[in-house]
């Protein structure tokens, strides 16, 4: 009888120890999962940040005329500014992706450049961008403090910056829209907030 009781006590001690090990592993897996989570657009510290009003200015269209940048849009609308250049190899890959994302998500896509107009026109022809809104000139990039390309800035209908950052993939572009849907400035912030309760419970 004593042997049976001792065996049961040892068994329960083993079960309790395993429970602690499982809880510790769950916590570590959560931390590791966050570290390996999809990376969103690389945020920059310069220029208008998420939640701030975008600078309002006229953008000079490559085909003539102007468009207001940073102003109010129709209720519920979003505008994506994508800064590109013919000399940027990543931009060439990203342009068709941006067109797909804008179409799928019903976002007003505005290309912004600051290059020789003839070079820009050749890029437009090469990528089939005829009919797309294309602003060319240094003013917009300077106002938003865009230093590297490709750079994307998502604006809401009030002209506020929803999210911004360096982008080089569809995942990066979609992370800006995730920021709008979740109210977080970037996808990493959203993931941290969504996992906080689980990590606290694991502790």
UniProtKB/TrEMBL annotation:
Pathway: One-carbon metabolism; methylamine degradation. Residues 48-182 form the Thioredoxin domain. The keyword Transmembrane helix applies. The keyword Transcription does not apply. It comes from the Bacteria. Keywords: Membrane, Transmembrane, Transmembrane helix. SUPFAM superfamilies: Thioredoxin-like. It is found in: Membrane. Coiled coil: none annotated. Its main location: membrane. The chain crosses the membrane at residues 6-26. It is a single-pass membrane protein. Signal peptide: none annotated. May be specifically involved in the processing, transport, and/or maturation of the MADH beta-subunit. NCBIfam families: MauD. This is Methylamine utilization protein MauD.
């Amino acid at each position: 009888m004593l042997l049976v009781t001792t065996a049961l006590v040892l068994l329960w001690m083993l079960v309790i120890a395993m429970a602690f090990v499982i809880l510790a592993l769950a916590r570590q897996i959560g931390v590791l999962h966050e570290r390996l989570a999809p990376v969103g657009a690389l945020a920059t510290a310069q220029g208008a940040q998420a939640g701030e009003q975008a600078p309002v200015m006229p953008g000079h269209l490559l085909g003539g005329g102007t468009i207001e940048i940073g102003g109010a849009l129709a209720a519920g609308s979003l505008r994506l500014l994508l800064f590109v250049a013919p000399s940027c190899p990543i931009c060439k890959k990203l342009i068709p992706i941006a067109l797909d994302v804008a179409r799928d998500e019903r976002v007003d896509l505005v290309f912004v450049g600051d290059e020789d107009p003839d070079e820009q026109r050749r890029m437009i022809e090469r990528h089939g961008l005829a009919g797309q809104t294309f602003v060319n000139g240094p003013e917009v990039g300077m106002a938003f403090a865009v230093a590297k390309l490709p750079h994307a800035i998502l604006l809401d209908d009030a002209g506020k910056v929803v999210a911004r950052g360096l982008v080089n993939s569809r995942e990066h572009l979609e992370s800006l829209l995730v920021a709008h849907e979740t109210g977080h400035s970037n996808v990493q912030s959203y993931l941290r907030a969504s996992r906080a309760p689980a990590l606290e419970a694991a502790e």
